Amino acid sequence: MNKNLKILMSGGGTGGHIFPAIAIAQEIQKRFPEAEFLFIGAEGKMEMEKVPQAGFKIVGLNIAGFDRGNLMKNVNLPIKLISSLVKARKTIKEFKPDFAIGTGGFASGPALYMAAQLDVPIFVQEQNSLPGKTNTFLARKAKAIFTAYPNMGHFFPKTKTFFLGNPIRKNIITDLIDKDSAKEQLGLDTNKLTILSVGGSLGSRTLNNAWKENIDQLAAKDFQLIWQTGKTDYSDLKDNQSIINHQSKIMLREFIADMALAYSAADVIVSRAGAIAISELAMAQKAVLLVPFPFAAEDHQTKNAMTLVEKNAAKMVKDTEMSERFWTTLMEICEHENTRAEMSENLKFFAKPSATEEIVDEILASLNISF
């Protein structure tokens, strides 16, 4: 096959779909600098901004997911689907890709379905332990499916399903440093147990409220907290008197730019259970308390968390249990060094530092493309 490859990429709606697609494209581009890429996304979704920022072209489809909360919003869905299929077909026929890669999300369905109809080899990358409907549908026509969790053969054809992990930000892999150095860089006490709380890029009100309720107990334990609040709650929290009273033990941040440094400094991490977050946590290999976002599609964050809990690689508290179980479960981790060590060791199973490279290796091998 000609090394001036043309690759179609599709995935979006959330960062969990977009960033793996970008990472895979960048890895192919590294090997084939002359390769040409075209992304297909959903109009109005974040991929229309993030993909061009990464230096790739993108075409938008007028597509949306099924709205379970407001059924009337689905009236135009058939029209949107048909128009998206037509536009995807036209785009693919004009671009003439050598192969297509989908990472899930609204636009990925029409794009990869039409690619397969036009005899373009397609590949699917699934980030979660409970696959999205788009990827489950596309898997039948895919040459290979790449998963971030083991034992996915009951969702996908076993013979073409590969447990290779999620592509994650390179600096999370390369920039992790020893704990004491990280604490020093952040101006923290190297002798104190440090908890990192992250609620995703937008923050988590559930986690923010839990810390507000337990701030005095945290101070009494003489622990340190790196607390990423997100934009919505930050202004209120920074003026909260209880937090101000204990500010020597709390590093309050709206957003954390250097996550590798924050991961490195932590003894314990409290986090939502998004697929990419879990893949990064597995690389950090710190004891983890997961609080899944309950409104994620098909409650997939709870499924992600349970996969780790079953291997004793994390503990989990549901949103509905926070008042009763958050602090006691956190203390089960913080007050028992052996528990933390065991969880950290078990997390190694999910750590896949070469995920992006191995996914690209498998794609190229299946197509007999060498570089």
UniProtKB/TrEMBL annotation:
Q: Which residues form the Glycosyl transferase family 28 C-terminal domain?
A: 194-355
Alphabetical list of InterPro entries matching this protein: GlcNAc_MurG, Glyco_trans_28_C, GlycoTrans_28_N
Q: Where is the Glycosyltransferase family 28 N-terminal domain?
A: 7-146
Give the family from UniProt.
Belongs to the glycosyltransferase 28 family. MurG subfamily.
Q: Which Gene3D superfamilies match?
A: Glycogen Phosphorylase B
* Keywords associated with the record: Cell cycle, Cell division, Cell membrane, Cell shape, Cell wall biogenesis/degradation, Glycosyltransferase, Membrane, Peptidoglycan synthesis, Transferase
Q: Which organism is it from?
A: Kaistella antarctica
Which pathway does the database say it acts in?
Cell wall biogenesis; peptidoglycan biosynthesis
Q: How does it sit in the membrane?
A: Peripheral membrane protein
Q: Which residues form the signal peptide?
A: none
Residues holding UDP-N-acetyl-alpha-D-glucosamine: 14-16, 128, 169, 201, 256, 301
Task: Specify the superkingdom.
Answer: Bacteria
EC code: 2.4.1.227
Location(s), subcellular: Cell membrane
Tell me the SUPFAM superfamilies matching this sequence.
UDP-Glycosyltransferase/glycogen phosphorylase (SSF53756)
Which protein, by its recorded name, is this?
UDP-N-acetylglucosamine--N-acetylmuramyl-(pentapeptide) pyrophosphoryl-undecaprenol N-acetylglucosamine transferase
Q: Does the keyword Cell cycle apply?
A: yes
Q: Does the keyword Cell wall biogenesis/degradation apply?
A: yes
User: What is its biological role?
Assistant: Cell wall formation. Catalyzes the transfer of a GlcNAc subunit on undecaprenyl-pyrophosphoryl-MurNAc-pentapeptide (lipid intermediate I) to form undecaprenyl-pyrophosphoryl-MurNAc-(pentapeptide)GlcNAc (lipid intermediate II).
From which lineage does this chain's organism come? Bacteria, Pseudomonadati, Bacteroidota, Flavobacteriia, Flavobacteriales
